[in-house]
What we know:
Elements: E1 12-17, E2 20-27, E3 31-39, H1 48-51, E4 56-61, E5 73-76, H2 82-86, E6 91-94, E7 102-105, E8 111-114, E9 123-124, H3 130-142, H4 147-151
Parallel strand pairs: 6-9
Antiparallel strand pairs: 1-2, 1-5, 2-3, 3-4, 6-7, 7-8
Amino acid sequence: MKDRHTPNEGAIGTIQHEGKFYYARLLKAPILGVYAKVFSAPLARPLLPKLADLPFAFQVPIRVGVIGKGKFEIVEKVPLLHSDIDAMQPLFKQEIGDPSDCFLLYPNGEKKKVTPEECIGVEALAVWEFTHILWRIDRDFNGIPNPTLDYLKVKLPKK
């Protein structure tokens, strides 16, 4: 990942979907980390102390258009710390023509060649639109399957 700085890195915001509130944080490069808890009402500020101990349900790279009114709305700006970056997960990239050609990309920019098996459970290096974030929320929090999301999983080479 390129080391891009955005003035909103570290910001916490809400995603309102189906009458529920999901909180997320803008991480490095910009990656959105959606917290692994759903709320029936908005939380009062300050948000970070209420969310800091929650894990992320998922972390995905996003397009700039994901941020905005009626989408991911920033409600609190807090600094992004080195410990926040260190806690981020790597992303995987797999070559379409050669499924055995995989690598992990870490938030610090490190790239490491790995086997496809090492990519199981790791997020794909793909940029998400707001609709895709909602699909992911539906799948992860509400158990609604989505074949498009499953398509992004690592493909194991045929033996």
